[in-house]
Amino acid sequence: MSESEKLFQRAVKRIPGGVNSPVRAYGAIGETPRFIRRADGCYIYDVDGNQYIDYIDSWGPMILGHNHPAVRESVARAIENGLSFGCATEIEVQMAEFICERIPHVEMVRMVNSGTEAVMSAIRAARGFTGRDKIIKFAGCYHGHSDSLLVSAGSGVMTGGIPDSAGVPKGCVADTMTAAYNDLDSVKTLLEREGSQVAAVIVEPVAANMGVVLPEEGFLSGLRTLCDEYGALLIFDEVITGFRLAFGGAAQYYNVRPDLVTYGKIIGAGMPVGAYGGRREIMEMVSPVGAVYQAGTLSGNPIAMAAGLTQLTLLYEHPEIYRELEEKGERLYGGMEAILAKKGIGYRLNHIASLGSLFFTDRNVRDYVSAKSADTAAFAEYFKAMLKSGIHLAPSQFEAMFLSTAHTEEAIEATLEAVEKYFSAV
Ligand code: KE4
User: Fold this and answer.
1) Annotated catalytic, 185?
2) Which residues line ligand 1 (CB under 6 A)?
3) 3-class secondary structure, 373
């Protein structure tokens, strides 16, 4: 029995599913999750000493690779002064100034401890600012696990909410309406009927939680126009895309200005950090200056700020990183597409810059319904074969691959060889 199997046997006795976040359990794969001891650059090492080229990258934070020396040293220095004070600190001011002085649509920002908290708080700020209760989200988009956002849209345009999760009272989702990604008409339908009550439209500007699904031409700008027309706020959930597609995230990449934006992952460099920010008049609704209450014991934690600010500073001072990630993405995802084409396999590979997803379907994947057409059993076989070849992918068809600057040409070639080997045998 492997060390991972032994640990998993112990873990399931004391932790639900043996994991502290469901997707880590490999549930959709039917394998024992690999317990990781350490990581460095683009590699992770499990407790049995196996090395993998890592495309989870902690689900996005590790854009500069694991164990980056500058990030590690900033944490080591910060720890010498203590871990947490529950008081204001200079580095929180530096972090807020750094973001607001470089992201035009963020005039004020509040730090929290996760993407979930960031989104939950941004929604509350939007409701407080507009005095309206309803929100519109999109089928297949994931915005963390707060009650009102755990809404399954099923297919097409839905109204009201159908809780995805047990334990979510109908009242919590009654004000959540669901539209179809890349379908402006589905948004118009909801706004024509309920527009005067809609506080915000929240969207992943590049969806990455139904697998990667790109916004079609005019979709994001169309949301901007519709929100302006009905007085609703546009919230970009950039927990994944923020500081990844460009330093200014998808908002910069697609040149569409949200009223509020949420961040996570990269902003903490692997430490628990989320943030929400945007127009000053909205953010000044937030306590203690405004009537929208939001708080957090460890928000703006100085150790997490040290890690996050170091990573953001490196990204800002080295804009060539974004070109490098585009090129690496082209090499990896373009290489995978070429292998599939050569084999005459019609699977779909959606990708943008460092993000990508291989869908086991020959349909164009442009929304939740088409994403759900993917053959998850086929994906599971692919995942297991790639794991055996030393390639660590997200254990779900509906997640993304994350490239980092630490993914070397050699690692990308090794990945393409493993893909070639799998599709030659299957
Ligand atoms: P967290 O609360 O997990 O930090 O962030 C929630 C969240 C919000 N918005 C978007 C667009 C997100 O992708 C996420 C979290 N992403 C998942 C991966 N798809 C986190 C992995 C997990 O749940 O373990």
Assistant:
1) no
2) 21, 23, 59, 114-116, 119, 142-144, 204, 209, 237, 239-240, 264, 274, 399
3) coil
Known active-site residue 384: no
**Per-residue pLDDT tens for 256-304?**
999 999 999 999 999 999 999 999 999 999 999 999 999 999 999 999 9
- The answer to whether the CB of 162 falls within 8 A of the CB of 173 is yes
- How far apart are alpha carbons 167 and 165 in whole angstroms? 6
Q: Per DSSP, what are the bridge partners of residue 217?
A: none
In angstroms, the CA 368 to CA 398 distance is 10
Residue for token digits 């200056």? 289
Residue 403 has pLDDT above 50, yes or no: yes
* CA 117/CA 294 separation, integer angstroms: 9
Work out the number of other CB atoms within 10 angstroms of the CB of residue 281.
12
Residue 387 falls in which region: left (phi positive, over 0), alpha (psi -120 to 50) or beta: alpha
Least confident of 76-85, 107-116, 146-155: 146-155
Average pLDDT, the chain: 95
Q: What is the pLDDT of residues 343-381, one digit of tens each?
A: 999 899 999 999 999 999 999 999 999 999 999 999 999
How far does the centroid of ligand 1 lie from the alpha carbon of residue 275, in Å? 13
Q: Which atom of ligand 1 is nearest to the CA of 274?
A: 4
Residue 158 clears pLDDT 60, i.e. is over it: no
265 part of the active site: yes
130 phi/psi in degrees, rounded to 5: -90, -20
User: Cα separation of 137 and 67, whole Å?
Assistant: 35
- Distance in angstroms (rounded) separating the CA atoms of residues 382 and 181: 27
Determine if residue 211 is left, alpha or beta; phi over 0 gives left, psi from -120 to 50 gives alpha, anything else beta. left
Q: Tell me the per-residue pLDDT of 131-157, one tens digit each, with 9 for 90 and over.
A: 999 999 999 999 999 999 998 643 223
Ligand 1 center to 343 CA (angstroms): 34
- Kindly report whether the global pTM for this prediction surpasses the value 0.85: yes
Of 243, 303, 405, 300, nearest to 73 by C-alpha is 303
